[in-house]
Amino acid sequence: MTDHLLNGWRDKALQFEDQLGTLVIGQADAIRHSILAVFARGHVLLEGNVGVGKTTLLRALAQGLGGAYQRIEGTIDLMPSDLIYYTYLDNNGKPQVDAGPLLKQGEQLATFFFNEINRARPQVHALLLRTMAERSVQAFNRTYHLPHLLVFADRNRVEKDETFELPAAAKDRFMFEITIDTPTDDTVLQDLMFNPRYHDTDRLLATLPSGQLQFDALNGIAELIQSHIQSTATLKAYALALWKASHRPAEYGIRIDDVDMAELIHAGASPRGMAYFIRAAKVRAWLAGRDNLLPEDLRAVYPATMAHRIFFNPIYAYRNDTLMPAFISHILQHIAAP
Asked: N or C: where does the chain have the smaller number of CB atoms within 10 Å of the terminal CB?
């Protein structure tokens, strides 16, 4: 019975992934990681330049999931209360209070998009972190539960003025940090430029059926996936070594030119991060039609799960954009897979 149910959901997931690939072209990795996050029930941080398809991908995901979708724009004057309620004067000039984006849809809220999160103040980040962790909000002397909530936030990597870098605690709440870059394939670029299909986002998204992933069933399916996919003692040891290498790389023979490895790491990946790491790897194994984890599952999700959870000491932090990919690559090369 469980096998039959999971097989049916796998077909739905892969079909949905293919549909997303026709709407947001040239972003196969970002689409795959988004599908992994949906079925692992993990929040996602997106990073990329303007106009590369981040919002289109998120709107398509929200439409496929069904349920309610809310969006808020990060601004320097945004306050935590703006996520919960807003006040206004009605037609009679009387003050009114309406529910904000986190409360407006109640338990039907499935997808919450925080656009340019690094423009919001740390106080706003703090409220969002608690909501992400607990899937609930305290307001008006009661608790509002958001059992199906997935948060997607994005950062504009170009503009740095009037922005607030996310602290380590904030980043650690996100299962993945996914980088969405401009496609490099000329065929894809020409299609984006000259094919009218991609010039009208609303019309493009209208071709995608709504609610095909049944958002209110995903928590149960995610639990089934996690209990169904098994791992061996050897694979567990491999995963543990990948984690330890993020803390003590020199002990695992990892070397980078012009870097003192003993002085590189300020903080490695957290236990929460490793739990997310395994959850995502299990979903990948499930999508591949297996009931067991393989090293390739771990290696495929390691960069997106780990890179935003590893912090370099200040003398190297300014080189993060180039050092981090090299560091992740060296870990995967030097830790022998079973």
From this structure: N
